[in-house]
Amino acid sequence: MKWLLLGMLLLLTTGCQSEHSLHIDNDIQGNTLLVAHTKEPALSIINPDIHELIEEVSLPFSVHSMVQGEGRIFATSQQEEMLYELSLTDGSLRPIIDIGDGVAEMLYDDGTLYATRPFHQEIVKMDVENESIETLAASGEHPHSMALDDGELYVANVYGNTVDVIDKERFEIARTIDVIGRPTGMIAYDEGILVGGHGPFGELNTEMHTYETSEETQIEVGLMPVAFLETTEGIVGVSHGSHEVFLYDTESKQVTDRLEVAHNPYYLVQANDEVAVSSLDGDEISFIDPQTWELIQAVEVAAGPHVMLYLEES
C-alpha cells in the first residue's frame, strides 16, 4: 500500500511538470499579438496588422506573466511552480525551470529573467541558458511591479509602500525609496521613475508620482493608474478605475490626451506603431494611434484579457 501511494504521488508530481501540447489550428506567421486571459485558461492570437482575432487556444492553466527574449517565449502562472517555454511553431508548452508558485510579473534582460513572488516576499533572478536561480528577499511586503534602468532593477512593494532599487550585478538592494501607498505600475525613463498605484486604504489614488528626479512631482491622471509604456510620443498609461488611457508629455510634464476604453483596462503594449490595451472586464483589446490619439479598432476577445506579448515578424 505504501509503494502504491508513493507511486501515485510521483505520478501526480511529474504530471504537473510535464510538457503540454496546445491545439493551434493556424500557421502563425507575421506580426502577432498574444493575449493571455485570467478568467479562463486561454490564449487569444490576434493579427495586429488587420486588428483581427485569428484564433483562441485553450491552455492547461491561466497565464499571468509572459515575456520574450532571444526568440523564446516564457510564461508563468500564479498557480504553477514552473517557468514554461511556449512554442507557436509546434504548439508545445514546456517546463524549463522550477521557480515556485505565485509569480506576479516577469522582466527579461539580456539572458536574465527577473520575477516577483508577492506572497513569498521574493524577487527571483534566473539564468535562462544555464537554468540557475537566485532569490532575494524584498525589503517590503508584496513585491510586484518592476522596471529596468541601466544597471538597476526597481521593484515596487505594494503593502510596504516602497520601491527597492536593486544592483543587478550584485543582486542586492542598493537603496529603498518611500513611495505612494500601494504602488502598482512603474516605468523608468530619462529623468527617473514614474510610479502609479491604488493609493492608501480608504483613499483611492488619482495621480502618478515621479521619484529619483531633481524634483518629485505628482501628476493628476485618472483613477488608479496601474501600467505605463514609453513611446516616441510620450509615456502612455492606463487608469483602470476611470477606464482611461492617457498620454503624458515628459517635456511639458502635462497629460496631453485621454481616451476612454472598455471597462477596467490593466495592461498595454506597443504593437507596430500603435498601442494595444487590454480591458479585464470589458473583454476587448483596444488599438490606439498614439499620434492622433484615436481609437483605431476594438477587438472582442474571451473573458478577462490581461497580459499581452507582441511578436514582430523576423
Strand content: over 45%
Question: Would you identify the regions where 5 or more consecutive residues have pLDDT less than 50?
Answer: 1-16
* Cα radius of gyration in angstroms: 20 Å
* Spatial arrangement of strands, main beta sheet: 1-8-7-6-5
Distance between the termini: 55 Å
Q: What is the residue-mean pLDDT, rounded to a whole number?
A: 92
| Apparent shape | globular
Please identify the structural class as seen in this structure: mainly beta
Order of helices and strands: HEEEEEEEEEEEEEEEEEEEEEEEEEEEEE
Helix content: under 10%
The number of helical segments is 1
Number of DSSP strand runs = 29
Outline the biggest β-sheet: 5 strands, antiparallel
Question: Which characteristics define this entry?
Answer:
single chain; about 325 residues; 5-stranded antiparallel beta sheet; 4-stranded antiparallel beta sheet; about 55% strand
